[in-house]
Design goal:
With 311 residues, the chain is α+β, with helices and mostly antiparallel strands. It has two domains: 37-171, Nuclear Transport Factor 2, Chain: A (Roll), CATH 3.10.450; 179-296. The protein is 39% helix and 24% strand. It has eight helices and 13 strands. Strand 11 and strand 12 (282-287) form a beta hairpin.
């Protein structure tokens, strides 16, 4: 009987210990969940990602509209925008800590300098929140946050809505735009050459030229055909890449004179800036002769009359 009482007492103690342990885990989980739901925590994560120049994490804290706009920016514009938001001169190392008052402090350490951002008390109004942030020795701004998709996203800086496309335009220098345009033009030439090779490969494989660009696109494994030759990626098969629009045109052979053998059809390829002045200025033309031509056409398509472009 005595042993039975001891066993019962042990079971009661064990239940109490397990309950306390599980309750502690649940409380910790709730505390963590509550902490992650705070707009100031989301903002700190976004600014830390901007300091590190981590586009993937930075995008997690942008609204659906701004995420789409950010992905369309040039690489230099993305970098410049994130640097401006944390007032850094280059990609850095973020360090998060708390002030004596328990407020978040974010330091962005770069080779040139360290920017320190001190967070104030957040104000939450249903699905909107406002977090004051002061750069030590610099400016003070209030970040607006909005609850979207179950989390807090960046909405505004001060009284200005966070329109990433417009901010990128304002914060991109003419020199950066010119450099980005030149890089896009160089990439467009490489892509044109690659397209010409794909067309020639198609001709060798199927004994004829494709009638449209889409025929060069991806195919399922083991299902390569004249309609899906698997020679280029889907994006290019749809006619765009790297800020340029690519067009393929089959050129019918001229009618042969009497007594002469009919000539074979040829092709022509053009590459035109998707946004003239931003993604490039020159338009390019390449045909089956292999001669590349290009000129600043103010956004119009290149032609065979354009000057030759040196390799």
């Amino acid at each position: 009987m005595k042993n039975l009482k001891v066993a019962k007492s042990f079971c009661v103690v064990l239940v109490l210990v397990l309950s306390s342990f599980l309750f502690g885990l649940d409380a910790a989980a709730q505390t963590k969940e509550t902490e992650e739901e705070k707009p100031s925590v989301a903002l700190a994560s976004a600014l830390a990602a901007a300091c590190r120049q981590n586009e993937t994490i930075f995008l997690r804290y942008q609204t659906a509209e701004n995420s789409l706009a950010f992905r369309k920016l040039l690489a230099s514009q993305k970098s410049n925008l994130m640097k401006r938001i944390v007032q850094a001169s280059d990609a850095g190392r973020p360090l998060l800590s708390d002030s004596a008052e328990g407020r978040t402090v974010l330091r962005c350490e770069t080779a040139g300098k360290t920017t320190e951002l001190r967070f104030g008390a957040e104000r939450v109004q249903e699905n909107l929140a406002f977090v004051p942030v002061e750069a030590v020795g610099g400016q003070r701004a209030e970040f607006g946050m909005v609850r979207e998709g179950g989390g807090w996203k960046m909405l505004s800086v001060g009284l200005v809505l966070l329109n990433l496309t417009e901010l990128a335009k304002q914060w991109t220098t003419p020199e950066e735009l010119a450099g980005a345009a030149e890089n896009s033009e160089a990439a467009a030439i490489v892509t044109l050459r690659r397209l010409a090779e794909a067309v020639e490969t198609y001709k060798k494989g199927f004994g004829k030229l494709p009638t449209q660009l889409a025929q060069l696109g991806p195919a399922r494994r083991g299902e390569v055909s004249p309609d899906h030759a698997n020679l280029i990626e889907q994006e290019l098969a749809e006619g765009s890449k790297g800020g340029y629009v690519f067009v393929y045109r089959l050129v019918p052979a001229p009618k042969a004179a009497e007594g002469q053998e009919a000539a074979e059809p040829t092709y022509a390829l053009t590459a035109t800036p998707a946004e003239y002045g931003k993604t490039g200025k020159r338009s390019f033309y390449l045909d089956s002769s292999g001669e590349l031509r290009g000129a600043d056409k103010q956004g119009a398509a290149g032609t065979v009359e354009d000057p030759k472009v040196s390799p």
